[in-house]
Fold:
Amino acid sequence: MQKILVSRCLLGHLVRYDGGCHGPFDLLARWQAEGRVVPLCPEVAGGLPTPRAPAEIAGGQGGEVLEGRQRVLTISGDDVTAEFLDGAQQALALVREHGIGLAVLKARSPSCGNRENYDGSFTGRKVAGEGVTAALLRRAGVQVFSEEQLPDAARALAALDAETI
Structure:
């Protein structure tokens, strides 16, 4: 049975930067009941507290952070790049440990966003881009979806399950 890496906030865990959560979502709850879910909040895993200051990547590109060309900064200017990179590496370690090929991560998060991200201005402006963890996992061959793409994730999971039969 294929395992799935899932952002903890999408499972109802109070790990969001503001101490809140998203979800739970019925499909994710079902996958969790089936024993498929490997939960992780990369930001908390990387050592950041809950709640914590909002953070963004200038330009919204997690790949730029992975390559050392951009930093992750809080709204007050604190550099939290090391924590984001550590959390991303922990996510990759879980992917390798569990043979994970699919992740459902929080949309528009500087760690987990997979299609768009905030631009680093803390004005709510969005740009095409991905978070640090999403970029690292995608580069490692993991299919990364957000909670806004659960039907697509379900189809991808069915395809992965069919490959392992």
User: Anything to note?
Assistant: The chain has a mean pLDDT of 96. The chain has one domain: 4-163. The two ends are 9 Å apart (CA to CA).
